[in-house]
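Lab meeting tomorrow. Look over both lines:
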Amino acid sequence: MGLVRKWVFPVVRILLIAAIAVALGKLAFFPDKTEDVSAVPTGEIVEPVIPVALGTIVNDVVVQATVSADPATPLKSTAAGTVDEIFFAQGSTVAAGDVVFDVKVEIVRAPEDTIDEEGKTKPPIYRYEQVVAPAAGVLSSLSVISKQDVTIGMTAGQIAPPTFSVSGSLQPEQRYRLVDQPTDASIAITGGPAAFTCTGLRITTPLAGSEGDGSTGGDTTGTAGASGTGGGGGGSTTTVSCPIPGDVTVFSGLAAQMTIAGGKADNVLVVPTTAVRGAAQSGTVWLSLADGSTEERAVGLGLNDGSQVEITGGLVEGDQILQFAPGALADPANCPPGAVDCGAVSVR
């Protein structure tokens, strides 16, 4: 054992050190030769091309809405005088035409009729003017009392109707999809009854200079006489609303989804909205030619469902067009179809 430790181990150690030294020297002074290989690009950028094909477009506009009670109707005095008798107390249910109170109005005598035969001033005479409920509902407020003086047009109370409406905000660009002035919508109440149809749909944008509640009217599509919402300076908020049928039970504050049918087209030419610059009435596509070049082509646009648009002119079935129009967005979910800049990154 002593011989192994004295001679064998030291010799093995020396041989290992020598081998390592030789290997390091070779790496340092005699590196392996490598062939010079130049990188040559082999990929090719190809513009996606799609054919113009026939299809069906269902143009349904979905609006997130809220159920609310219809606004109260003011009860106004129709004469100047003194409240004589009140027939309904606040909180009572009234029908349209019910007499809520009457007004004692003095009849002015002619000058020659003011003195009787004995030379005395004749006593005043009166007539009684009835103030009737302009609508059915609950007399939610009554601000007059007996013997109180009132004037013509003075608001004496409010009548809250038992009816409800559903309403929501419509994006301005969505109005292009509702140019046919729909008059009804399908309503689905969150946690409520099955979906139902409401008629008398109103679409309103306040006019510049209208009052804050939009009661002066506005640019209305659908039923005339609708009122909108917006600031006194004429805002851009467009409101869509629809009365809820009386046989449907709802409550104020319920969330709802309003689906407005803007039209349906069968067996028409359709292309993705990403292929078109423009979203309504007219637009531009890029036609792919046989030699590999492209040609800008003006087209007519019809119905638009947000992902596909109807082509009404400028193309025929089978034409090859670029799937992504230069400058259009690849994902128009948060932007009007065919728009160039909505704060997102363009595909070009």
The two ends are 81 Å apart (CA to CA). The first helix runs from residue 2 to 29. Confidence is low (pLDDT under 50) at residues 212-235, 330-334, 336-348. Residues 63-69+163-261 form one domain.
